[in-house]
Amino acid sequence: MVLSAVRVSSRTKVPTASVIIVHGLGDSGDGWKFLADLARGSNEFDHINFVFPNAPTIPITANQGYEMPGWFDLYQFGTSGGRKDVDGYLKSLKVLNSYVKEQIDLGVKPERIIIGGFSQGAALALGALATFDFKVAGFLIFSGFMPVGDKVKELFNPANIETPVFQGHGDIDPIINKSYADETHQFFKDLGYKNYNYNIYPNLPHSVANEELSHAFDFLKKTIPRE
Questions:
Q1: pLDDT, tens digit (0-9, with 9 covering 90-100), for 144-165
Q2: What is the dihedral of CA 37, 100, 21, 9, to 10 degrees?
Q3: Where are the domains of the chain?
Q4: List of long-range contacts for 37-40, beta carbons under 8 Å, 24+ apart
Q5: Taking the alpha carbons of 109, 101, 107, 126 in that order, is the dihedral positive or negative?
Q6: CA terminus-to-terminus distance, the chain
Q7: Which phi and psi angles does 35 have, rounded to 5°?
Q8: H/E element, 34
Q9: Which helix (DSSP H) or strand (DSSP E) does residue 102 occupy?
Q10: How far is CA 183 from the centre of its chain?
Q11: What are the pLDDT digits (tens) for 164-186?
C-alpha cells in the first residue's frame, strides 16, 4: 500500500515519537503542516516525526456527488442520524492503522505515537481509539464526531481505555454541531473512557482556535515529552 502523506521528520538523528494528524473533508495533508511548522518553533518537539495523511478523492453525496478529498462518504452534514458509510469508514480506519504501523516500523514505540485529526479525520482517530488492539500515547480530536457508533461498539477493543484523549470543539460550529460533539463525548464515557478531556471553545466555528492549539501542544509535552 502506498501511503500518501506530508511528512516532517524529526530534527533528532533518531525520532522517539510521532504525531499523525488526519485532515478533514476537502482538505489535504498539506493543510495541517502548519502544526509541524509551529512545533519547530520550540526544540521541545525536535524528537517528533509529524505525518499528515492525504485522503483519496471520492464523490460526496451530501455535496451532490461532487468529488473531493474524503475519508468516507457523507449523506448529510452535522447530524448523528441517517445513513452512514460504514464500509468507507472502516476502509480508511485500516489505512490509518497502516500509517501508525509505518512509524512503528521506523522504530517509534506505539506508546510514543499520538493519533489525531480534524472533523472527518477526527472521526477516524476516534475509531482508532475504540478499536485498535495496541496502546498508543494519546489522541487529539479537533471538531470531531463518531459517525458509526454501533459498528464501533461491535469492534470495540479496550487497549486504549486508559489512554489520554483531548477533544476540542467550537460552541458555534455549524458543520458538526456542539450537540453532536456532546453525544460523541458521552459515547466514549459510556464505553468507560475516563482519561478523556473535553474542551469547548467559545465563539469558535468549524475551525481550530489558538487557545486550542496551545492546549494541544501542552498535551504533546505531557504525553510524548522529549527523552
A1: 999 999 999 999 999 999 999 9
A2: 10
A3: 5-223
A4: 38/213, 38/217, 39/217, 39/220, 40/8, 40/11
A5: negative
A6: 32
A7: -65, -45
A8: helix 33-39
A9: helix 86-105
A10: 17
A11: 999 999 999 999 999 999 999 99
Find the angle CA(117)-CA(154)-CA(165) to the nearest 5 degrees.
Answer: 30
**Which residues make beta-bridge pairs with 113?**
18
Give the sign of the dihedral formed by CA 96, CA 98, CA 104, CA 109.
Answer: positive
Query: What sign for the dihedral angle of Cα 7, 8, 10, 14?
Result: positive
What is the crossing angle of helices 86-105 and 120-131, to 10°? 70
CA distance 20 to 101: 11
| Domain 5-223, CATH homologous superfamily name and number | Alpha/Beta hydrolase fold, catalytic domain (3.40.50.1820)
Nearest to 32 by CA among 213, 177, 215, 222: 213
- The single residue listed with the C-alpha cell 492546549 is 215
Whether this prediction's pTM lies above 0.70 is answered by: yes
- Under DSSP, is residue 86 helix (H, G, I), strand (E, B) or coil? helix
| pLDDT tens digit sequence for 79-125 | 777 889 999 999 999 999 999 999 999 999 999 999 999 999 999 99
Grid coordinates given for 71: 475519508
Cell digits of residue 155: 469492534
**Cα–Cα distance for residue pair 59/125, rounded to 1 Å:** 22
Instruction: Provide the annotated active-site residues.
Output: 119, 173, 206
